[in-house]
Design a protein that fits this description.
Radius of gyration: 22 Å
Number of helices: 14
Oligomer: single chain
Distance between the termini: 22 Å
Number of strands: 12
Bound molecules: iron/sulfur cluster
CATH topology of the largest domain: Rossmann fold
Helix content: 25-40%
Number of domains: 2
Strand content: 15-25%
CATH architecture of the largest domain: 3-Layer(aba) Sandwich
Shape: globular
Length: 364
Amino acid sequence: MTTSDHPGHAPSGTDVVLEARGVTKHFPLRRTARDLVARRRRSVHAVDDVSLRLRRGTVTALVGESGSGKSTVARLLAQLHPLTSGEIRLGGEPAVAGRGRSFRRYVRRVQLIFQDPFASLNPVHTVRYHLTRALKIHGRAGSGETELEQNLADLLNRVQLTPPQQFLDKFPHELSGGQRQRVAIARALGADPQVLLADEPVSMLDVSIRLGVLNLLRDLKERLHLAILYITHDIASARYFADTTLVMYAGRIVEGGDSERVTQHPAHPYTQLLIASAPDPDRVVAEEDQEETGTGEPPSLITPPAGCRFHPRCPKAMERCRTEPPPRFDLSDGQWAACWLYDGAAANGTEPVADPATAKEATR
Ligand code: SF4
């Protein structure tokens, strides 16, 4: 059975805050002399037919290599770019943020945290300025100086920058990378959002402080019941931090499910490649298995491969993979994969395969 007829892998529920349905984004390229001669218009197929749901009190990880389109998904959900097609729904209603007040209303509920805490804070302004501005923009500054001071202190306490008075009048260059990212998170919380879109929030931080920032986000998820989208190239951190993991390759989501399940029993050959590439001193991969995980570079998104986009790198590619894009196939425990290996009935003359491990055996 496929799940291509419904967005995401989990059933609909009232706890869904933000949803993408068949979201597609193609960026048109400037036409060259060759394009004019060939009478063609080319575009970058950054995101194709992406569907996902973000639920209150949960973290969803979106994992993939650089250039897979995961940051574009975050920007589309933040309504920083118009969609080529598809729909974004906030609180069950179609959401088109537009500009001005309607955009402000949207960002009050959906906040984006950028990867680079060094660039996201203005170096000439203090922490107090950044947080006060956020509170004022979103109408949460309070009615007087005392209330404003209290709200500023609350924000810094929430991100564990304590005592607040020690940080309020500092400039960004006086803070460590981890402290800056905490200020950026506090600024996002100034809107009192329901959703945080965290685009590689720890990738530019020293390894030693990454865990602290991830723990802070997890604490906020639980205390404030936030829906968090965690964009990362590090599938190991997704297992640690996220409830659900979605894997993205060349503009499409290729696998999804419970994080423990996806990282411990990856079904899609691309997910298997990601996991095999992640440094893990405890894992010794046999040479034969290393070859099986696949190699090579991601494809061009201007002319993406036909059929399954992973087929030029996939050691298990079959003839149909080169021409037919695979739909999503349900596996066990809510896991799914967009891969013809799991079309058991058609590929192997058997019933659809229910478990990735079984499927691996069935295709050998
Ligand atoms: Fe490999 Fe085919 Fe599955 Fe794509 S659909 S991952 S090419 S086996």
